[in-house]
Amino acid sequence: MTNSVVSFGLLQYLFAYTKKILGGSQKLHKFVYYGYKSNIGIDMKKTIKNFDGLYGEVVSSADRNYIFLEWIETRSKGFDWIIKPHLHTHLYQVFYIESGRVIVDSSAQSEQLKTPCILVIPPNTMHGFRYSPNVKGRILTISESIFDMLFPASAPIVLEFETLKCIVLHASSNKSIRMLFREINDELFTDRVEKKLMLHALLCQLFVTVYRISLVHSISALKDTNATLHYYRRFIQLVKTSDVQKSIPVYASELGISSVHLNRVCNQVCGKSALLIVQERLVDQAKNYLSHTSYTVAEIAYLLNFEYPNYFARLFKKLIGVSPKEYRNKLHASH
Q1: How do strand 127-131 and strand 91-99 relate by DSSP bridges?
Q2: CA 207 to mean position of chain CA atoms
Q3: What is the CATH classification number for the domain harbouring 105?
Q4: Bridge partners, residue 278, by sequence
Q5: What is the pLDDT of residues 124-138, one digit of tens each?
Q6: Do 69 and 92 fall within a single domain?
Q7: Nearest-CA neighbor of 252 among 270, 286, 275?
Q8: pTM
Q9: Edge-first strand listing for the sheet containing 67-71
Q10: DSSP secondary structure string for all residues of 86-131
């Protein structure tokens, strides 16, 4: 099957046929494992520009423990001070802009920022920039996995950072933010004892500080009217907060759209099927258990609601390339 556009009638037939084969009563673990990946029905010319890593990177170096800090000019100067609208599917970014002219472009509007300010950009949020050459500031980028680890999904702070926001800084808050960025920079680019622990502590302090500032300072919430991104973000949130495995039709129903529409949304945003996104979420959870607990592979499978451990092991190897046991052994060997 190629990436060419397939007629909607054929799509309906394929999904109806798949549903008939699977049957409504079958266990979801079989659905999760035996599902297929495809770009059918997607006009790839309409896909949204996204980066797994930083803007302009062809090969991403970002992983689940990714933390990076750079001056705004470092990357922007090479693009003639214009960063075209794009998104990052698994990265949070915090822009600390001290001075200079900055226009941010979202999917719905363009707005010139008042500096000094903090701009928080969550994953899957369209954004672009037009800078003046004299702009001064830093960009902090962290993986979604680190943010999720620092803040439980139910914390009020998580809701605050679900949308793109600009927070104008007053003198005292500007000083606090500047100091925190310097401390993060020093810790990130020097080799010190318990570096990871300190970085996480500083990141937690930064986000809580920004959250506190947002409660008392003026906030500009840039509108996002892109329906595709709206559905995608809601789908990701449902996947992240679900305590049980659900089929793609169930997720689609909760979003008020069809399975075909949901797959189209996912392909347009990140080039993956909705099913693969669910699979990857399960495997990410499994990797956490394998890395930080002594649960057996079978126990992890049951914790993730797989009825049979062999189905879990096969899915894990399919996506990671090694079995869960081999993955854990490699982790132990590297320490």
Answers
A1: unpaired
A2: 17
A3: 2.60.120.280
A4: none
A5: 888 999 999 999 999
A6: yes
A7: 275
A8: 0.66
A9: 67-71, 136-143, 91-99, 117-121, 165-168, 219-221
A10: EEESSEEEEEEEEES-EEEE-SS-EEEPPSSEEEEE-TT--EEEEE
